[in-house]
């Protein structure tokens, strides 16, 4: 039986009834942010669906009106996977073409369905902590070659540890938020002895996928690797904007800081792990070395999700693709990242976010940062009409999209919407 | 005129009427956390003071009952320094021996004053983000010598940048919370090629001072150095517990992660910048090199605060002092840390926390970590009755205290209470 909705969904839509992502939105006539899902080109106001009693009786979802009237998903996220799953199935049922309850209630439909073009999206969660990983072998190798040469490209720990570092939660913003070019300390020349202050001249993107913690863990206890997937609420697209000149000068020995913390963009709809389950595949072989036992998984844990980065240069009127990559290239899985993160007893809270690190594939056309695509600024990227770029200029717009199952035989796509942002000029010289 | 309270305050107290720190507490008969201050050996329930109308009319403090009935200081912190100042002065007035309003109202006194021994302290704020700096020249030099030798002790950026990195906010805990020894990846020997998994064998402390952001800044805008002090709500003591073996293996190239995120303890009472103003002194000379203009301050910005670390080994019955240091040794001031942190446009939110990094003084007796005191485990620390330590053992207790004006002629001390924690055995082998 194919699941089908009475809401029309084009073949190419990111949001068929099989998806049912969760997000926070508001509308011009009701500015209070609330919980919604997306289907076709419509947002579905789940607070209205709940008020109509259509979510009554979902196992474990006590007080759906309250939970879906909140301005973040944190409470819903804290309920755990059985509840997320039951809720998603209930929503699919409500939206299915065979269910008359909403379909034939035109007054309710009016309140529940809003064109996606008319909604304002907000951050889906209050993000307590944000952690950025560095888990693509191709990306780590490329960066390593540029900085340390081919023979020492990967650091000694890289094949043992899903390397990560704490990021800045306050500056995570939702897709569509403008990004201000940061100023900071940078070296005026590669072998300069003293830094100068000024706007970053090497403003870059990082193509990443983010994961949200649903149910957390207590301080002092770990999340077991075999349990990790159930703790994940879902995935989003991430652009981890990076100022390479600021980063290069500051990062030794304690890691990236102001080169990253001026902004991190995420797509607004969290696509659930349940929706993505059909796209689980085996990731890269981890045999030499084998991971330590706490990182060993006994089932596929990579996701086949196509990822694309497009840029619209300031002087251009159209987006052009600069890279096509895939989440399945990632050496360390998102579940390995979560298990590692908590093995020291670090506590996760509902709404905490991780990001994979830049997802580069094996060829130049699949590199996830301008640093790699231009090989540290050596090779220009050619756009139409003679426009060229190494790093981002003011007014440039960047858009990341992602879609599972592009070539699958399932007959539908699970998409992520978009993660976009535009560069504003620096305020400080 | 000397300010004096009708509440008795011993000569040696951390909390004279000149202090008026802010914290969150609860009591056995009322488990709802609420805002309080401390005077002598009493906590003062500010929600009850407000309910009695004694804080009515404080400029800018609208709805003091609501604000002081909250379970965190975030709202109060967001009001800005003029309001914090007016509130502190009003509280001093209410507690002064010449004011009969509270003094002679025995029924109200009963509700307002609670012995400090009977209160349970909570985290003073919802900490959105926590940033750990590395701003003691002596500490950075000591660590540098151990890792890279004397000639390359300080990294090239160190004298230009208040080096910092994002920490983990979820695992910041209030003084008195037990700390679970973390497990993780570590090298079995210095030149080993592959890591093993197990409990950290080099569990350490870091003596630090934390600062809380009161009023924040918008994403994309900076906090000017000359404005920075007014954005700070106050200071606390910090023990940034560190697992040196985990940290050493993981930290290249993205910085400390699981070696830190298992727990960070803070003292419960935030001492305001206004209370500390009499203890402002000039910090170390910053002449070679001069800081970039955005880091230049035109007034004293170091604080003369004595800091002491005591340890009670598991097999012992008393605390013994292992280090005595002072915040004034710090090369980069807390205001320089805040100005640097935001110069890229990174937004601060009320309740965000920074920590100075380990505060080591010039001599061995003033080093702020066991790593330095034992010179990486080479020299044992001798306690009474033949007890010895290099790093912490299960059951060991650590207590940090801090006090401004120990030898000042002001006639009072501004103290911080204590920041303590006990090591529990690791759960995972
Ligand atoms: Ca990144
Ligand atoms: Ca530290
Ligand atoms: Mg970022
Ligand atoms: Mg810590
Ligand atoms: Ni300001």
Automatic annotation (TrEMBL), chains A, B:
Q: Which SUPFAM superfamilies match?
A: FAH, Fumarylacetoacetate hydrolase, FAH, N-terminal domain
Q: Does the keyword Transferase apply?
A: no
Q: What is its EC number?
A: 3.7.1.2
Q: Which UniProt keywords apply?
A: Calcium, Hydrolase, Magnesium, Metal-binding, Phenylalanine catabolism, Tyrosine catabolism
What metabolic or biological pathway is this protein involved in? Amino-acid degradation; L-phenylalanine degradation; acetoacetate and fumarate from L-phenylalanine: step 6/6
Which residue intervals define the domain Fumarylacetoacetase N-terminal in the entry? 18-124
Where would I find the Fumarylacetoacetase-like C-terminal domain in this sequence? 130-402
Q: What class of enzyme is it?
A: hydrolase
Q: Which cofactor does it need?
A: Mg(2+); Ca(2+)
Q: Which reaction does it catalyse?
A: 4-fumarylacetoacetate + H2O = acetoacetate + fumarate + H(+)
Annotated family: Belongs to the FAH family.
What is this protein's name? Fumarylacetoacetase
Q: What is the lineage of its organism?
A: Eukaryota, Fungi, Fungi incertae sedis, Mucoromycota, Mucoromycotina
């Amino acid at each position: 039986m194919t699941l089908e909705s009475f809401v029309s969904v084009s073949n190419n839509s990111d949001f068929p009834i099989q998806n049912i992502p969760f997000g926070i939105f508001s509308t011009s006539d009701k500015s209070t942010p609330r919980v919604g899902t997306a289907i076709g080109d419509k947002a579905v106001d789940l607070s209205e669906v709940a008020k109509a009693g259509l979510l009554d009786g979902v196992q474990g979802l006590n007080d759906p009106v309250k939970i879906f009237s909140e301005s973040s998903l944190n409470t819903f996220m804290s309920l755990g996977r059985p509840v997320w799953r039951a809720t998603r199935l209930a929503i699919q049922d409500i939206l299915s073409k065979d269910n008359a309850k909403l379909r034939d209630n035109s007054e309710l439909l009016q309140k529940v369905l809003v064109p996606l073009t008319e909604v304002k999206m907000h951050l889906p969660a209050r993000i307590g902590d944000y952690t950025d990983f560095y888990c693509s072998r191709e990306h780590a190798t490329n960066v390593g070659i540029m900085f340390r040469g081919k023979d020492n490209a990967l650091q000694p720990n890289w094949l043992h540890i899903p390397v990560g570092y704490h990021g800045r939660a306050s500056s995570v913003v939702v897709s569509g938020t403008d990004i201000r070019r940061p100023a900071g300390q940078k070296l005026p020349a590669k072998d300069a002895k003293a830094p100068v202050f000024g706007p970053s001249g090497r403003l870059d993107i990082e193509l990443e996928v983010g994961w949200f913690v649903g149910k957390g863990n207590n301080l002092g206890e770990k999340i077991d690797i075999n349990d990790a997937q159930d703790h994940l609420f879902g995935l989003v697209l991430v652009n981890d904007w990076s100022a390479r000149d600021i980063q290069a000068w500051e990062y030794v020995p304690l890691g990236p800081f102001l080169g990253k913390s001026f902004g991190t963009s995420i797509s607004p709809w969290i696509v659930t792990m349940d929706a993505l389950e059909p796209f689980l595949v085996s990731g890269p072989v981890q045999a030499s070395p084998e991971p330590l036992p706490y990182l060993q998984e006994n089932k596929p844990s990579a996701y086949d999700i196509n990822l694309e980065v497009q840029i619209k240069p300031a002087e251009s009127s159209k987006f052009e693709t600069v890279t096509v990559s895939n989440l399945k290239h990632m050496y360390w899985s998102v579940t390995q990242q979560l298990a590692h993160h908590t093995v020291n007893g670090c506590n996760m809270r509902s709404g905490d976010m991780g990001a994979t690190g830049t997802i580069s594939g094996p060829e130049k056309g699949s590199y996830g940062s301008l640093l790699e695509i231009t090989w540290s600024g050596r090779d220009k990227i050619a756009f139409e009409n003679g426009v060229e770029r190494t790093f981002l200029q003011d007014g440039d717009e960047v858009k990341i999209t992602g879609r599972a199952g592009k070539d699958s035989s399932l007959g539908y796509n699970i998409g992520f919407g978009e993660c976009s942002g535009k560069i504003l000029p620096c305020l400080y010289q």
